[in-house]
Amino acid sequence: MQNKKYKYRVSFPHIGNYYVPIYNWFSNILDKNTTKIIIPKKMSKQTLEFGSNNSPDFICLPFKYNVGNFIESLNQGANVLVQAGGGCKYGYYAELQEQILKDMGYDFKYITLVEKGKIKPFKIYKKFKELNPNLTFFKFIYRFCVAALIAYFLDKFEDYIRLNISYEEKIGKFEVIHKIFLLKLRNIKSISQLFKVKNKYMKKLKNIKLISKEDRNEKIKIGIIGELFTSMEQFSSNNIEKKLNKLGAATKRYTTVTYLLVKKPLEMKRLIKKSKKYIEYELGADGTTSVAHAIELADNGYDGIIHIKPFGCTPEENAIPILQKISKDKNIPIMYLTFDTQNSDTALDTRLEAFYDMLVMNKEKKKVDVLDNKEALDG
Question: CB 3.0–4.6 Å: which of 208, 298, 318, 353 could bond 332 by disulfide?
Answer without folding.
Answer: 298
